[in-house]
Every structure is written in structure tokens, then in C-alpha cells.
Amino acid sequence: MIRMLSASSPLFSERSCAGAGASGAAKFREFSHQGWQSAAATYHDYWGDLTQQSVEPMLDALAVSAGSRLLDVACGPGYVAAAAARRHAYATGVDFSDVMVRIATQFHPEVEFCVGDAENLPLETNRFSAVAMNFGIQHLSRPMRALSEARRVLRSGGRVAFSVWATPDVTKGASIVYAAIEQHGTLQAPLPPAPPLWRLDAPGDTCRVLREAGFDDPIAMQVAQTWYLASADDFFGAFYDGSVRTKALLRAQTGPALAAIRRAINGSLRSYECAGHIEIPMPAVLVSARKLT
Q1: How far apart (Å, rounded) are the C-alpha atoms in residues 62 and 159?
Q2: Is the pLDDT of residue 63 over 90?
Q3: 98-156 pLDDT, tens per residue?
Q4: Handedness of CA 97, 100, 104, 105 (dihedral sign)
Q5: Checking CA distances to 203, which of 70, 144, 160, 290 falls within 20 to 30 Å?
Q6: Residues 111, 93: contact at Cβ < 8 Å?
Q7: Lowest pLDDT segment from 10-19, 55-64, 83-92, 263-272
Q8: Three-state SS across the chain?
Q9: What is the pLDDT of residues 134-146, one digit of tens each?
């Protein structure tokens, strides 16, 4: 069974999310950095069409329009920044992976991208009218630091928004993979201490976190998303090659266990076959708030 934790859980604290204080945070950051460096080249192919489905709702929640100044934090291939630029906003993207930044720059040469840490942004105070994090905050060991940084770089009256996956019971792709691992392998792989993946999947938790970070009037909504995949091989490849923690977990299994996990995944995917391809519900929770002062 996948263990889910709310933001009110003691495990949501900065120290416990890091796993073991400052050293745990550093280990997790290095693990995450290396993982995204290696997954950057395949992330767009596997996850791009899915994670872009929340971009326009996010920009609407941020009230991004011509002349807005938007910061796309943990920008990955630069989807949010590029969409903001299409609205004639001034957009900047930042990611701690230089490989991701190079890819984003290649895809969107009209947008400014830079290498930087979400928890220590290399940008001046009160610069932006909007800050976005699209499926990035759940990968941070210290999300409250990232939200504090977002608040610092926001102007008074500016808005912040982030998206996370909804609970595994409705985010079917995640439940398929983790149920197969639990049944045929082990969830106790020797990985660095890491924050729970589903610590921010309930709207009430996301709103509470933003209030605790000093933001006002948080609003949460669920965004319906569907993952369209050509085959079961593409589904498996998305996790085995295009993710970080799940990739490490899968690669830590024994050969026989991994084969059994893959067979179980393929069996579960038959329920989502449609006209020669696969369609899987993967909704997101989108939350936004305002910096009043």
C-alpha cells in the first residue's frame, strides 16, 4: 500500500523531509540533481504532453497577461515560461539541472533561462509579478524554503502557483506502478532519505502550506489530465528512464522481480487501452495564492 502523508504530518517538517537534517538534505539534493541530469533528455518525450496540460490553467490562476513578469521555478524543458511568453509576458525559467536549462533554451530560444536552486534563487527581490512551479515542489527536500524564496522575489500583489499530482487513487499511472512494485518487488530500496512523494496531494494541505509560507487567499482546484501513450513499453519507459525516484526504485529491484513488476504493469494497463493506444487519468492539484504585502 502506498503511504500518503499530509502537510500536517510531522514528516512534512523541513528537517524530516530532508531525511536527516542538513546532511540528509544535501544527499537528497545530490541524488535528485544527478537523477534529473540523466533523465532530462527523455523527460520531454515521455512526460511533456502530460505535464503541459496544467500549464494554461496555471497561467490563468496567476493572471498572466501581456507585460506580466513570470518566473518558472524548476522549469524543466521550459513549458510554463514558453507559454507565458506566448501571452506576451516577460518570462524567466530557472532549474538546478544545467542539462534541463540547455534543453529549455533549445526548445524556446525566445525565453531567458538560467541555472539556479529553487531554495536559493539567484534573482533579486521584488522582481516578478508571478511565480510558477509546475510539478516541481514535490521533488524538493525543503519546499517551505522554496516558497519563501518565491515570496521574496514576488512583488506586492503578485501571485504564486504550483501543481502536484493528485492522490494515487485517482492518478492511475502512479498507483499502477507502485502497486506492482509492492506486490512483486520491494519499496525498501537503498535510496537516500527523501520526502514523501504524496505529501501535497490534498487541496486543504496545499492551501495550508501557502498560508504558512506567508501567502494570502489560497485557492486550490483539480485539473483533469489524461496521459496518452502509444504502448505499454512507453509507459514503463517513462518511469524507468524519464523519472528520478521511481527510476531508482525500479532499477534497485532484482531481475526476476523487475520482470514480474513489468508483467503486472502490462496487465493493469489493459484496462486503459483505447483504439490502439493507452489513455490513463493523471489529474493534478493546482493551488495559487497572493502576496499582499
Answers
A1: 6
A2: yes
A3: 999 999 999 999 999 999 999 999 999 999 999 999 999 988 888 999 999 999 999 99
A4: positive
A5: 70
A6: yes
A7: 10-19
A8: CCCCCCCCCHHHCHHHHHCEHHHHHHHHHHHHHHHHHHHHHHHHHHHHHHHHHHHHHHHHHCCCCCCCEEEEECCCCCHHHHHHHHCCCEEEEEECCHHHHHHHHHHCCCCEEEECECCECCCCCCCEEEEEEECCHHHCCCHHHHHHHHHHHEEEEEEEEEEEECCCCCCHHHHHHHHHHHHHCCCCCCCCCCCCCCCCCCHHHHHHHHHHCCCEEEEEEEECCEEEECCHHHHHHHHHCCCCHHHHHHHCCCHHHHHHHHHHHHHHHHHHEECCEEEEECCEEEEEEECCC
A9: 999 988 888 999 9
CA distance linking residue 235 with residue 5, whole number of Å: 26
d(CA 156, CA 174): 38
What is the three-state SS of 154-221?
Answer: EEEEEEEEEEEECCCCCCHHHHHHHHHHHHHCCCCCCCCCCCCCCCCCCHHHHHHHHHHCCCEEEEEE
